[in-house]
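Take a careful look at the protein record below. Let me know whether the structure tokens fit the sequence:
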Amino acid sequence: MKIIALFQIDVAWPTDVSTSPCLPPLAYVIFVGLVAGLFVVMQILDMVNFIPHIGGFYLVYLTAWSLLLQTTTLVLLFISTLWGYTLLETREPQNAGADAAAAKANVPFFVRFTLALWYICQPISMIVMILYWTTVNRFWRPLPATHYDYWAHLFNWLVLLLSLFMSNLPWSVRNSSWAVIYSVVYFVWTILHHRLEIGNGRPCANYPDDKCPLYDIIDWNKPGPTFVVLAAAWVGLLTVLCIYTGFFRCRDAYVRLRWSRWRQANKAKCW
């Protein structure tokens, strides 16, 4: 049961999903829709740019996995947000305690599934950004980068981070388990990719095409250095998850501060 609890998603439906600490409900729905639309457009452009050159090998890379997941998640989140908004507009006021308990007990599976994906997208977007600018295109000696590179390894993370602070979606440390699962899946994929001799769609200097590693730093032809790199990546993941816990706490502290000021202002008006 304790293991199952790690994957539990506690959210007050529809309030947490369809409201914002900064925007009215309808404005927040529009904001989420615009973000989802932006990701869909950029996903299409990214695929149009890369697939003609590398074909199906597009799908072997962590960046492609993450972009597809982010786009899918934001479309599902927009549907969930709009759905919740319609419920907020039509439901009748109920007893506060009973209503809160029911809100957490009656969360649709679609919404829980969407949030599980969202808990992956947020920290993984930062991980992808860090890995790109430190191992693939090192920021201290950068190679020329296209706007696709900047979108996939920087701007998408900034937009996702903005959406985090604009939302009321909850977070707890145990929600980190979803990002850990995603990382394990990709770790296993790197091994399968090597064993099946898939290649990466591009020629490489040191190996036949079908033995080319996914990334120069994840080369299972040299397992020793690769294990060191992956161990460092796991430490980085745990650090990023701690950072995201801090992000959520900062957002929640801001919400509590605004709520406190609102109560004080209304109390003063009553007197």
Notes: The chain has a mean pLDDT of 89.
